[in-house]
Automatic annotation (TrEMBL):
<dbReference type="Pfam" id="PF02308">
    <property type="entry name" value="MgtC"/>
</dbReference>
<keyword id="KW-1003">Cell membrane</keyword>
<dbReference type="InterPro" id="IPR048640">
    <property type="entry name" value="MgtC-like_C"/>
</dbReference>
<dbReference type="InterPro" id="IPR049177">
    <property type="entry name" value="MgtC_SapB_SrpB_YhiD_N"/>
</dbReference>
<dbReference type="InterPro" id="IPR003416">
    <property type="entry name" value="MgtC/SapB/SrpB/YhiD_fam"/>
</dbReference>
<keyword id="KW-1133">Transmembrane helix</keyword>
<protein>
    <recommendedName>
        <fullName>Protein MgtC</fullName>
    </recommendedName>
</protein>
<dbReference type="Pfam" id="PF21770">
    <property type="entry name" value="MgtC_SapB_C"/>
</dbReference>
<feature type="transmembrane region" description="Helical">
    <location>
        <begin position="68"/>
        <end position="88"/>
    </location>
</feature>
<feature type="domain" description="MgtC/SapB/SrpB/YhiD N-terminal">
    <location>
        <begin position="19"/>
        <end position="139"/>
    </location>
</feature>
<comment type="function">
    <text>Virulence factor required for growth in low Mg(2+) medium and for intramacrophage survival. May be involved in regulating membrane potential by activating Na(+)/K(+)-ATPase.</text>
</comment>
<keyword id="KW-0472">Membrane</keyword>
<feature type="domain" description="MgtC-like C-terminal">
    <location>
        <begin position="156"/>
        <end position="232"/>
    </location>
</feature>
<keyword id="KW-0997">Cell inner membrane</keyword>
<keyword id="KW-0812">Transmembrane</keyword>
<dbReference type="GO" id="GO:0005886">
    <property type="term" value="C:plasma membrane"/>
</dbReference>
<feature type="transmembrane region" description="Helical">
    <location>
        <begin position="42"/>
        <end position="62"/>
    </location>
</feature>
Length: 238
């Protein structure tokens, strides 16, 4: 049997230590994720760490360091696809980026453990846990700092409600006024409304704007013939 011929007790114990280290460190990372009720929690992070360690350890035993390097490159890309599965887009908001990054980093812990770099694996795990816990108060403090409208990255839209008969001519006037205010338009959409009115929605090219400048443009739009309402709004992007 190939098993009897290839089995080596010392190599087996070496593999066991590597997988055990990956399991323990993956548990530490996953426990923090599970506590915060993230989509990829305890079991997922443990499996990523142990799986990465097993692949790298097997590659070393079969083909030495060269084989391990090739397998590690595949682990990095493979876990990237796995992380994409926990990223969710809800409107303009994107959730799960931190969880995906944690999974990707957990694979690095497993790869270190699988290549018998246990101290490095523990160090990477320490920094992952520090990033997800110690930096949280700093993130919350930064998020509480008020910023002006011009400093925020957002999608700006100018919305003009007008009588249907006036819409064809208003479209170009709106684009011209915004362009004159140095806010070029990326896209213009038309929405049909009740009472023979329509909404012209102009999406601006820039991701930063000054509220006072847009207020001035909107004031001009309100004075155009057939316009019943005009306003602007910003949707924050992440």
């Amino acid at each position: 049997m190939q098993f009897i011929e290839s089995f080596d007790l010392m190599s087996f114990f070496d593999t066991m230590v590597s997988l055990a280290a990956a399991f323990v460190l993956g548990t530490a990372i996953g426990a923090e994720r599970q506590y915060r009720q993230r989509s990829a929690g305890l079991r997922t992070n443990v499996l990523v760490a142990v799986g990465a360690a097993a692949f790298v350890d097997l590659a070393i035993r079969l083909n030495g360091a060269d084989g391990a390097v090739r397998v590690i490159s595949y682990v990095v890309s493979g876990v990237g696809f796995l992380g994409a599965g926990v990223i969710m887009k809800e409107g303009l908001n994107v959730r799960g980026l931190n969880t995906a990054a944690t999974l990707w980093s957990t694979a690095a812990v497993g790869a270190c453990a699988g290549s018998d770099r246990l101290a490095e694996a523990a160090l990477v795990a320490f920094f992952i846990l520090s990033g997800n816990t110690l930096l949280r108060p700093l993130v919350n403090a930064i998020n509480r700092i008020p910023i002006d409208e011009g400093g925020s990255e957002a999608i700006y839209e100018v919305r003009v409600v007008a009588e249907d008969a006036q819409v064809p001519g208003l479209r170009d006037r709106i684009v011209a006024l915004l362009k004159a205010a140095k806010y070029p338009v990326a896209d213009v959409n038309l929405e049909e409304l009740p009472d023979e009115t329509s909404a012209i929605v102009a999406t601006l090219v820039g991701t930063a704007a000054k509220g006072k400048e847009l207020d001035a443009v909107v004031a001009q739009l309100r004075r155009l013939p057939g316009v019943t309402h005009a306003n602007w709004e910003a949707s924050t992007t992440y």
